[in-house]
Structures are given as structure tokens and as C-alpha cells.
Amino acid sequence: MSRFSQTMFSSVRHTRHLMNFLWRHVAVVNCCLFVVSVSLALTYVVQVNRSATNGYRIRDLETAINQMELDNQNMQVKLAEVRSTQNVSSKVPMLGMVKANTQPVFLNSQASAVSMNR
Questions:
Q1: Running along the chain, 118 residues long, what does each successive block of 10 average in pLDDT?
Q2: From CA 3, how far away is CA 8, in angstroms rounded?
Q3: How far apart are CA 103 and CA 29, in angstroms?
Q4: How far apart are CA 71 and CA 77, in angstroms?
């Protein structure tokens, strides 16, 4: 056989050797394929479970955000009620405030005042 034909048929020879090896060790090949299939299935189940868990967490966090926004709105309404003029005017005596005179009194000084910085 020439070198060209040896080179040309070398891949066929390698393929035959591989097929002979596989046919002699069918049980080993089947076990390896089974282990690979089971590991891929377990990986898939774990990833789906992790995605579902993250989905539940996201939903819980969105619920918490919505509740906090509602609480914030309620607090702003209470703040507006506390700052209202009706509420402040009802608490005037408790705060020790008195009504101002209706006519303000202005001081008019004819003498100019000067201060000195030391």
C-alpha cells in the first residue's frame, strides 16, 4: 500500500478502532451516558427550582414595596392634617401663644444709633 492510500484510509482505520472499542465496552458506554443524562436532569431541576425561588422572593419584595408606598402616603396625609391651620389654631392655648394686637405699634426713633466693633 502506498503512502497516499495509507494517509487516505488512516481516518477509516481510526474510526474502525473506535467502533470496535465501543462494541466491546457497550456496558461502560451505557453507564457513562446514563450518568451524564442524570446529571443534566438534576442540573435542570436545580436551575428551575432556583428560578422559582427567586420569583417568589421578587414577588414578596414587590409586595413590601407597595405596602411601604401606601404607608408613606398615609403618613403624608397625617402630616398635612397636623400642619393644617385648623389643627394649629386649636392648639394655640396649649402652646402658650396669645393673639396679636389688631393695630401694630411701630417705633420711630429720631436719633440715629451707631455701634462700634471692637
A1: 57 76 84 95 97 96 97 95 82 77 73 69
A2: 8
A3: 107
A4: 10
Q: For the CA atoms of the chain, what is the radius of gyration?
A: 45
In the structure grid, which three cell numbers stand for residue 8, read together? 487516505
CA angle 21/26/30 to nearest 5° reads 130
Provide the whole-model pTM: 0.48
What is the rounded CA–CA span in Å between residue 60 and residue 111? 74
Following DSSP, what letter does each residue of 8-61 receive, concatenated?
Answer: HHHHHHHHHHHHHHHHHTHHHHHHHHHHHHHHHHHHHHHHHHHHHHHHHHHHHH
Q: Give the separation between CA 32 and CA 28, rounded to whole angstroms.
A: 6
Phi, psi of 46 (to 5 degrees): -65, -45
pLDDT in tens, 28-50: 888 999 999 999 999 999 999 99
